[in-house]
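Section 5.1 Outputs to date
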Amino acid sequence: MDSMTEATEQAPGTEHSQERPPALEALLMGAVDPARTAIEEFSGDDTVGEYLGAVFEDPTAATHRFLAVLPGYQGWQWAVVVAGYPGTDHVTISEVVLVPGPTALLAPEWVPWDQRVQPGDLGPGDLLATAPDDPRLVPGYMSSGDPELDEVAGEVGLGRRRVLSLEGRLEAAQRWHEGEFGPSSAMARATRRVCRDCGFYVPLTGSLGTLFGVCCNELSADGRVVDCEYGCGAHSDTPVPAGGGSPLYVPYDDGVIDPT
């Protein structure tokens, strides 16, 4: 009920209506005890807290609110709808519900699963289907049956049902350029050497190869796609530091030392 949210902001009886006889209005607004009793019968007398007020729902019904005293429901309220008709001397309990108050802690808005999946969530055995109209992919071409042509087609992506679209390539390029192995990363900013000049750098094929390649240095970004402007201290042209090596000491056998 949308009007319930205004219950704590209005004084009881402030919505007098010409369609509602004064006697019925007084009966509905005065039904605090029957409303409290209804909650106690529904949930127990130790779950009902302070009375918060009432508001009319229509000419013959009003909603009374009480603070809820329940573990895990801080800020929630009990709402009891009472109803009556002109000339009656008692009210009828129509509904007892637990509703969030202005300060209630609510669960976050539900998000569809396909919008909740994040990079790194995919695990062994998981299946993640792409949408038929995924803008990152476009239809490929069927194999021709000619071995020589099909071998070339396989190199450029033909023969697969779908291949990367221009949008898909641009998204990947933007993601890699701004990621951990891009020119703006802390590692790249700490060196003047870049991957495009490194012997461990193998460029990708196709249009992405103009900006990206794979690092083959097991001590660096091994097997990762790196920006050609990325760099690290393990560049193939990194010189040996002056005075390299550990200082030399005369070896000795500590087994011959007499502790006494």
